[in-house]
Here is the input.
Amino acid sequence: MALRKTFLFMDTIINKVDAKGRVSLPSDYRAIVKELSTEIVCYRSLTSPCIEGCLEDLLDKLATDMENSLDFFSQTQDDLTNLIFGDAKRFPFDSTGRIVLTEKLLKHAQITDTAVFVGKGRKFQVWNPENWEKEEARIRAEVLKNRPSLAPKENV
Amino acid sequence: MALRKTFLFMDTIINKVDAKGRVSLPSDYRAIVKELSTEIVCYRSLTSPCIEGCLEDLLDKLATDMENSLDFFSQTQDDLTNLIFGDAKRFPFDSTGRIVLTEKLLKHAQITDTAVFVGKGRKFQVWNPENWEKEEARIRAEVLKNRPSLAPKENV
DNA sequence: TTGCATACCATATTTTCCCATGTTATATAA
DNA sequence: TTATATAACATGGGAAAATATGGTATGCAA
Here is the structure.
């Protein structure tokens, strides 16, 4: 397989969640994980009723950044690491490509028997179908309304 | 088992502590210790009523950083390292995956029969359940309030 | 010996792994 | 292009392994 240059979570995939919390990770996502020899990490979104996921490498980078930027005994660092790493968990997938979501995550995202995977580039989200439908509509409306201010030069 | 690239303590795990102070180390944590052929080190948190733990390697890194630091003669850092290294102790786990916490540590964290392990990336903490519940609420409120200024570059 | 700490054993429960099957997507040949 | 073969994927169920946790035995030291 040719090595790719970019690794982005994309597309929107709907999969079943069984009674054990098992759900197939979209095959495109699995390909990324395999190629980078890493793992998926998931945690509750801080701001939305959904599960958020990323590659373990990203959290490792975060851990290193915090070690280097804030001093060893910083209170702020303490709070942040507790919140992020206390909630995150690795989710290795089995030979059939499934991960087992925890009760905590499913409850936070109000997911019962169906999950919607939504690509976000370096991250992805997992939603309850109805919630995602509303959220997507909201986002579309929001983006259209603010369109002029999204031009690259006006960012940051 | 494929060698992993990253070693992070994550997730929040609740385990029983028996009359002897025995408690199962979360299996994810044990996997890291085994894979790196190292040991867990625990000490009383300097700032919170909890036990703090990490890999022995990290304390070694701390010692090295102190040697190389411009603050080599800093009274504060000197005091802090005294406190940590004076308090730290290795905690090997037995064949069933348990460590035996000392009376000193349990008392400091006000732990009796239940312990909450909270991942912090390179470190982890062990809390009394009620205290952790309050602490988590405090952190969430604090982080949400200051969120913009806490975003480390591209993350969160 | 007695007290204490460590190592060993037993078991219920949880989690992971493996197999089977229907379905979808992709490739190949007519 | 269309039909057919092949491979990849999603998903359900059950077997096997790992985990958490209580209890007992063993060794060492006071």
The helical segments of chain B are 27-36, 56-68, 75-87, 103-108, 129-150. Residues 15-16, 18, 22-24, 27, 96-98 of chain B lie near DNA strand D (CB under 10 Å from a C1').
